[in-house]
């Protein structure tokens, strides 16, 4: 494995599947943790590819020489945006899942699990749950909460009106003069 990337895993420990989920039993908390695990793995994988893309950018010296667009910059920017959208979409899906599973989040058993986590992680968990609920509002003191709120409110959908507005805002309304705000097709 590449030494530049490490996964902070302890030594792998073998565990029987029946210790995680019983074969013939349905349990909301077990199912809930399966989804959280899937989300964690999806986000970890997407973040890994974002880091690999950054490594590729540095390897090929993808930058903006003389403020001119290159195919490398276009490819890098497009792939970085795709990965960022997938991360945003995943976080959005997690907030939707949390909203639909309040009965599990506020169950006595789950609340016992919450007592075992650090105060900082508990605060972050509470922010995530609050953002997932209908009582979302900006919190001037909590940058983590505000970042999640912004992500939660972004759209991952393929809405032609939203895409057209974004295109127009970037190329016609932006004060940035990135490559003289030209679009490229190749």
Give a short overview.
It contains 7 helices and no strands. With 186 residues, the chain is an all-alpha fold.
Explain the layout of strands and helices.
Blueprint (H helix, E strand, L loop, with lengths): L27 H32 L11 H30 L1 H4 L2 H7 L4 H14 L10 H11 L6 H14 L13
How many strands in all?
A: 0
The topology string of helices and strands comes to HHHHHHH
Q: Structural class, from secondary structure content?
A: mainly alpha
Q: Main sheet, how many strands, which sense, barrel? A: none
**DSSP summary: helix tally:** 7
Measured distance between first and last alpha carbons: 35 Å
The percentage of residues in β strands lies in: under 5%
- Helix percentage: 55-70%
Low-confidence stretches: 179-186
Bulk shape: globular
Rg on CA atoms, Å = 21 Å
Average pLDDT score:
77
Name a few traits of the molecule.
7 helices, 186 residues, 60% helix, mainly alpha
Could you explain how this protein is built, in words?
With 186 residues, the protein is mainly alpha-helical. It has helices spanning 28-59, 71-100, 102-105, 108-114, 119-132, 143-153, 160-173. It has a domain at 25-60 and 67-156. 60% of the residues lie in helices and 0% in strands. α1 (28-59) packs antiparallel against α2, α2 packs across α5 (119-132) and α5 (119-132) runs parallel beside α6 (143-153). The protein is globular.
């Amino acid at each position: 494995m590449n030494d530049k990337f490490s996964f902070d895993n302890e030594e792998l420990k073998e565990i029987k599947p029946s210790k995680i989920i019983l074969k013939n039993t349905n349990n909301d908390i077990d199912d809930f943790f399966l989804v959280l695990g899937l989300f964690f793995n999806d986000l970890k994988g997407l973040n890994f590819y974002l880091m690999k893309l950054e490594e590729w950018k540095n390897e090929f010296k993808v930058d903006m020489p003389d403020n001119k667009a290159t195919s490398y910059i276009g490819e890098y920017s497009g792939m970085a945006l795709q990965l960022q959208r997938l991360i945003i979409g995943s976080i959005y899906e997690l907030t939707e899942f949390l909203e639909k599973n309040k009965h599990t989040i506020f169950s006595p058993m789950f609340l016992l699990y919450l007592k075992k986590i650090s105060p900082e992680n508990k605060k972050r968990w509470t922010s995530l749950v609050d953002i997932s609920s209908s009582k979302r509002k900006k919190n001037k003191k909590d940058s983590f909460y505000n970042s999640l709120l912004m992500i939660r409110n972004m759209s991952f959908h393929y809405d032609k009106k939203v895409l057209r507005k974004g295109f127009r805002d970037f190329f016609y309304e932006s004060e940035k003069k990135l490559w003289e705000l030209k679009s490229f097709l190749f």
